[in-house]
Amino acid sequence: MGSVVWQRVLPTCCWFLLVCAPWTVLSHPQCLDYKPPFQPPEPLAFCKEYSKFGCCNVEKDNLVSQRYYMIMDYFDYSGYLTCGKYIRNILCQECSPYSAHLYDAEDANTPMRELPGLCGDYCSEFWHQCRYVLSLLTDNNTTIGIEDDRDRFCAFLELKDPQYCYPNVLSNTDLNANLGSVQADPEGCLQLCLQEVANGLRNPVAMVHANDGTHRFFVAEQLGYVWVYLPNGSRVDRPFLNLTRAVLTSPWAGDERGFLCLALHPHFTSVPKAYVYYSVAVKKQERIRISEFTLSTSDMNMLDHSSERTLLEVVEPASNHNGGQLLFGHDGYLYIFIGDGGKGGDPFGKFGNSQNK
Fold it and tell me: Measured between alpha carbons, how far is 76 from 305 in angstroms, rounded to an integer?
């Protein structure tokens, strides 16, 4: 089984070091939906402090703003001046890059807080100034009767973690020093932000973006399937391409043969062609085959399987080191990486294939 993840920043050292040397200050930004924070595509108008990095896009920011003004309709001008800042600050914590901490949402198996966790001093200040706002901020019936009791009020709102409670989370230098920026740690590793976008795959070997405005991406499996994933994360039931009958594979887990790569024409919108790289047996002779397929005229999520045009076949003297990369260069040429032929010690030819220019 395999899975595919988006990788926002490329590491400069091995994965082992990334696991062993995480963020220097061990901060862990996370949103309420368990996804990583991001830079909003457009600046936020209401929770402006989270425009550079946080958990809200413009749509979410607008929803927070609407809720704020609905609550403020209950106040006269003096109440607006006294309580407006507290209500705004509390509502905007949904946009904080540490919202999962503030709402105790990191563990999907435990209830999420209805309101963000406050620091003790701030909670006391909030109680003295605007204690009766609580019933407007929450639909929780358990809050009835606690507004007159500061200890019960703050027991409900306080987050015991002094590092992540609001507003300490904003002033903590360690947590905020490098938020949203790419920093190398002492080992030379860059911070990564990973998000799973596909799972349940068998030996996924390639992922290609459609780059045609549809925001689809295609994932190829070594067995010979290519699947279409839509922008919402769902997968089209029928494969984009099914070459399982033609692809040379075996049950051996370490087999390096199979369907190895997919490349779309650089002008896929106007030239709907795809190029594939796979292992094949021709009269018991192992080869790699590069073929061209044309998109179906009736289904944009499927190639026309009858349109295969073989562009190149290369004999493989061994079953490993089959290369497998296809790339279109900026010069418009298709580059094919075929490997060195295989076997230990690079034994083929006078100097070995890998040394033969």
Answer: 69
Average pLDDT rounded to a whole number, residues 221-235: 94
Q: Which two tokens stand for residue 93?
A: 């914590």
Residues 44 and 60 sit within 8 Å (Cβ to Cβ): no
pTM for the full predicted model:
0.53
CA–CA separation, 29 and 191 (whole Å): 12
Interatomic CA distance for residues 342 and 5, integer angstroms:
30
Domains and CATH numbers, the chain: 21-176 (no CATH), 202-355 (2.120.10.30)
Q: How many CB atoms are closer than 10 A to CB 1?
A: 8
Give the residues across from 304 on adjacent strands. 294
Question: pLDDT-derived band of residue 82, with 50, 70 and 90 as boundaries?
Answer: very high
pLDDT digits (tens, 9 = 90+) for 304-343: 999 999 999 999 888 888 889 999 999 999 999 988 888 8
Compute the mean pLDDT over every residue in the chain, rounded to the nearest whole number.
86
Residues in contact with 85: Cβ distance below 8 Å, sequence separation at least 6, in sequence order: none
Rounded to whole angstroms, the Cα distance separating 297 from 258 reads 27
